Amino acid sequence: MQLGQFHVPSTHTAAASQVAAKKRTTDIKRTVADLGAVAYNQGVLPDELAQLISLITARSHLDQASLNSIIRNLYPVGSVSEDIVLRIIGALGLGELKPSLVLQSALLQWLILVYHVLDPQAQAVLSRAYSVLFNLLDVSAIRPQLFHILAIVTRRRHVQHYRIQALLNLTRQHANDRHLVGLLRVYRNYYPEIIVAGPGKGSTFKLPDPEWKARLAEIQRAHRELEQSSSDAGPRDGFKTIHQHLAGNKAAKGLCIPGVQTSHAHETSITLEEVDSAESLAANMERIEMPDHLVAVLVDPLLQKLMMVRPDKDWHRAWAWMDMQISEILNGDAEEDALVNCLQVMGEYAQATKLTRFLAALESSMDGSTEAQCDLLHLYTALIHQWGILLLLSTDSDSDADSDSIPPHTSASLNTLLQHANKLGLTLLQTAPTEATLLSLLSLYDRVVAIYTHSSLLRALQITVPPTLLIYTVQFSTSLATVSRLCALLTAYKQACAESMANATRKLGPAYDKKQVSTFNGFLMDICNCLWRGKAFTKTDTTSRGCLVPDAVVAVLTGYVASLTESGASSEMTLAGLFSMSYSPVLSLQALDYVRMREEQEDLDVELRARHAGPVTQRSLAQLARKGGLELSWHEYRLGVLRYLEAREMKGVPELMYSTMKNLVEAKSKA
After folding, report:
1. Which GO terms describe its biological process (predicted)?
2. Tell me: the pLDDT tens digits for 313-366?
3. Alpha carbon distance 228, 240 (integer Å)
4. Separation CA 236–CA 234 (nearest Å)
5. Helix 120-128 and helix 370-394: axis angle, to 10°?
6. CA distances from 570 to 535, 563, 566, 584, 620 (A)
7. For the whole model, what pTM was predicted?
8. Which residues of 616-641 are buried (b: 16+ CB within 10 A; e: fewer)?
């Protein structure tokens, strides 16, 4: 019998399950019996296991006895994936679309039996689903199995006071439930001062079916031996070349990747094919001759290790193959599944070596068009969004302090990706300086700051702020929607920076970059100087940078604005005030609309003798009041514009002002 040539008849069973008993042309009991026999003798492959779990958890025409028989014979030949665990958890509880409680109990018992062969991600799923499982304890039919699973996965972070109280409440109703007492004893190991003694004579949890587990061990051992004998790749510890790697890598097989072969060795050198252990690799490191085709590094673990510790000048040969492969895919000259296979091989290589060269290779393969750059930006945005989801799933939802489960390379990986995204963003600002581009860039950093705003993640990450040129370019956008989004983004960054600095002070997180904090404070001060204080481009404040506009440019612009005043423009118009609320191209209309609204409200009670012509200044408001117009102080006017923007769902600017200007803290609380 060869690996991959056997399978349980899961497809036939699944098809029969969709046909009503009276309409079937086959004997379903015989089909289920055959399935059970094959599964008991040979085990169930991963794809078949997923299909059978789906069959059990979905509505079908199979009787309960048949479904129970299938569960009893689900002997996985390898590790059980997180998808299987998620599907079982999703099938628990009460509801018309849920399996019967008897089947739910059997599925939970199966999880207990296979817990030791769950892959790490699957075990993590059970840990993250702790709250879901705990809340199902009200369902008495599956309570014993739930107690057992909870006892297995319980860690200190899961033991919360409200859960202890809930279990103690259950003991008043079910004092003799040994499963309940068993879970309480697990809890008592963490908090003996709270749970002094467990009631009753509960015993420790025992394996439901030792014989079943023994049979599972036999099947998995036989499968491992079969897998090893069916491949001549040798030890899979990464210290021997895989001569026939294409036979076990379907993706590589479709891409025609050559194997490791060295034809130009000499007497004093050693070929990679002769290395068969870590000791052999270390002893002959400098004598090893590089193989003919370095592209084999994509699939050969030994060559990967060699090229990581001994970088070679011919690295470009491997990347040249990737460039050629991607070019063929883009030109339509490759096979239909070439793209998927290529990405799979690259992904496996990147995962194995932790290198970041693929970002550069991907960028170099683009044609340089604006469309390609935008597509790449969207890819980075989606990738960061996906990383954020995975990071949140890796932490316990019950605890904000659980950052141990975050991989140690997370911060460096995120920052590396952001460096590429930052360069791409600055390039797009030159090649396609449109509002659509600006909004796409803001979407990218929205995904980044969404990661930083979670306390559990922030304790393991260093904050990287957006590029200075990007911030100032977006700041002077002519779109209020764009400016509002920028201000909202900076507000979120400000909160994250404050928490990061506090964590660093309390030794609860990594040290923060003082240079980046100074740069970020410069963003805030420059924007406030423009919008609120009427001091655009000033550099007199400690942190202000004058929006990085050179002094010579400021001098020329100041002279130009002065010439406009001499030509009849308002004498109050200055360069420093041209970007304030009253004069700003994006806020002046809303500012004047606010004054118009106040005038109309005031006119209902007292007839106004004068109306403001705009733009509004502190001096013009005083003159307006003396002429019988609206009486409105300068501070009340600016605060009113902020509230006017908030009421119209343009909250970015108000949020930034409230969080940055100290004199607005009290005003915000009264809003």
Report:
1. CENP-A containing chromatin assembly; mitotic sister chromatid segregation
2. 455 666 666 666 666 676 766 666 777 777 777 777 777 666 756 666 666 666
3. 14
4. 6
5. 70
6. 18, 11, 9, 15, 11
7. 0.57
8. bbeebbeebeeeebbebeeeebbbbb
